[in-house]
Amino acid sequence: QVQLVESGGGLVQPGGSLRLSCAASGFRFSSVTMSWYRQAPGKEREFVATISSTGGFTNYADSVKGRFTISRDNAKNTVFLQMNSLKPEDTAVYHCKKVPGSWGQGTQVTVSS
Q1: What digits encode the pLDDT tens for the residues 3-53?
Q2: Of the candidates 80, 113, 110, the residue with the CA atom closest to the CA atom of residue 11
Q3: Comparing C-alpha atoms, which of 89, 37, 28 is closest to residue 59?
Q4: What radius of gyration, in Å, describes the C-alpha atoms of the chain?
Q5: What is the number of other CB atoms lying within 10 angstroms of the CB of residue 1?
Q6: Can you tell me the distance from the alpha carbon of 86 to that of 50, in angstroms, rounded to the nearest whole number?
Q7: What would the 3-class secondary structure string for the chain be?
Q8: Could you count the other beta carbons within 10 Å of the beta carbon of residue 27?
Q9: How are beta strands 33-39 and 10-12 bridged, if at all?
Q10: With contact defined as beta carbons under 8 Å apart, do 53 and 31 qualify?
Q11: What's the CA gap between 34 and 78, in Å, rounded?
Q12: Can you give the pLDDT at residue 48?
C-alpha cells in the first residue's frame, strides 16, 4: 500500500525558512518521479516542484524558482522541499505526490508576522 507522509510544516515569519519532508513507503521509491504541490484556502491545488527518480532533473513553478529547492534521498525513501525567503503568499497546505499516482495528506505552512 502506497503511503506518503509529509512533515515539517509550521508557522514562520516572512523571510524565514522551512524544510518539508515526505516519507514514502509501499512502492519502489527510487524508480519514480516525485513532486510537491500546494493548495491555499479558496484556491486550486498548484504545482510547486518536481524531481526525477535519480534527482538529475528538477523543475519549479515560476513563483518559487530561486527560493525553493527540491531534493531526495533514495536510501531513505524521502523527498524534501527546502523553502527559503518565504512570503505570505506561500501559505498553503503542501502535498507530496508520487508521479503518477498517490498524494500525501499534506502539511500546513503558514507565513505570517
Answers
A1: 999 999 999 999 999 999 999 999 999 999 999 999 999 999 999 999 999
A2: 110
A3: 37
A4: 13
A5: 6
A6: 19
A7: CCEEEEECCEEECCCCCEEEEEEEECCCHHHCEEEEEEECCCCCCEEEEEECCCCCCEEECCCCCCCEEEEEECCCCEEEEEECCCCHHHCEEEEEEEECCCECCCEEEEECC
A8: 16
A9: unpaired
A10: yes
A11: 10
A12: 98
Per-residue confidence (pLDDT) for residue 38, from 0 to 100: 98
Query: Which cell goes with 56?
Result: 538529475
Q: Which residue is it, cell 523553502?
A: 83
CA-CA distance, 88 to 81, in Å (whole number)?
17
Residue type, 91: T
pLDDT at residue number 101 = 86
52-97 pLDDT per residue, tens? 999 999 999 999 999 999 999 999 999 999 999 999 999 999 999 9
**Cell triple for residue 14?**
516572512
Pairing of strands 10-12, 107-111: parallel
Type of residue at 7 = S
